[in-house]
Amino acid sequence: MTSLRPPLSALWGVFLLVHVLVALLGWVYPSQPMGDVVLVYEPWATSALGGGPVVGVTETWVYPQLALIPMLVAKVLSLPLIAGMGVSGAYLVAWAVLVSVLDALAFSLLLGRSPGRGRRTAGVFWCLALFLLGPIALYRIDAVTVPLVVVAGLWLARRPVVASVLLTVGAWIKIWPGALVVAAVVSLRRRISVILAAAAVSVAVVLGLLALGADTEILGFLTEQTGRGLQIEAVAATPFLWLAVLGEARIEYSFDILTFQIAADGADAVSAALTPVMAALVLVIGVLGVVKTIGGASAIRILPPLALSLVTALIVANKVGSPQFQTWLIAPVVVWLALDRRRAGGAAVVVLALALLTCIVYPLTYDALLRAEVLPILVLSLRNLLLLVLLILGIRSLVRVPVPRIPVTPKE
Fold first, then answer.
1. Does the predicted TM-score (pTM) go above 0.90?
2. Fewer CB within 10 Å of terminal CB in the chain, N or C?
3. How many domains does the chain have?
4. Residue 62 forms part of a structural domain
5. Residue 269 contacts by C-beta under 8 Å, 6 or more apart in sequence?
6. Is 3 among the domain residues?
7. Which residues sit opposite 231 in a β-bridge?
8. pLDDT of 16-58, one tens digit each?
């Protein structure tokens, strides 16, 4: 991706314009791209604040428990707006404002007062990725984790403890930021500090949940995933979608997890195989990082491609494959561009293409996808192929990280 040096005022103008435009497009695009926010987040928040069941505490939940906090914050922010906009409208506006404010805080840290070309390029990339991905980039709980990971990624080298705390909080909102904790443990000298900070946050969360009365619900976000089938957007579902075109597979809606899944011979076996495949991918990528670290390679060179490879592996080998997963890719690339823009360009271009293709599939042609029409399946197949390309690109970049001729054993 070509380095850019626009003035700060222009960058902030683009940032604000993109957030407003993407927020408004949520009201215009088909297939209810804001559906999760008003159909599930708002009722969960209302129930918790109104003395009803509390997801993750009194009943098993599909998300880690800290995901409820931004939902509650948005509910409180929406209260003054309800009289004029209704419950749903007020909550949607409050959610968009909350995510935009979090993004703005991270964007401010990224740019600072006098950013270099790498950070300016990262800022432009972030705005482009958000615009191309569309409303799904704002109106999902995943959007809350992106600015947390951007800030943590920029701080990992200088403030590893604070960064680890932010990443662990992010992982208790949506699991994927934990991939950057792994990357930090592998590549940084102060890995013990990273581990202790992550452990302290997790212990505090668990103790807090126990105090609130949770027990078996604490790890419910893991057990709830075990029975899931193969979601239609998953990379591994691609062959089954083409079978659906031929009438040899079906797309069915699961009322238990509120998503569309593949029904076909072999689909359950593929779904069951993906978890060990994911574990194997993460292990292999982690070992590559360890080898480079033991060889004395620079942590700044190892961390970005390692983080991106791990995050991409979580998507490629996932049986879910929801469109909002593409937001996970934004933060590692922003950090990579900020730290090492010359080597991050290829990954940035691929992620922008992934964002555009994902938006074309969801929400723009999603109804046609559910009817197993050829065009959206073709677009989705290309998107999934590019995810594999991104994984290969990240791993290749990690393999190519140079090591000194005389190995240097990292110190704590």
1. yes
2. C
3. 1
4. yes
5. none
6. no
7. 261
8. 999 999 999 999 999 999 999 999 999 999 999 999 999 999 9
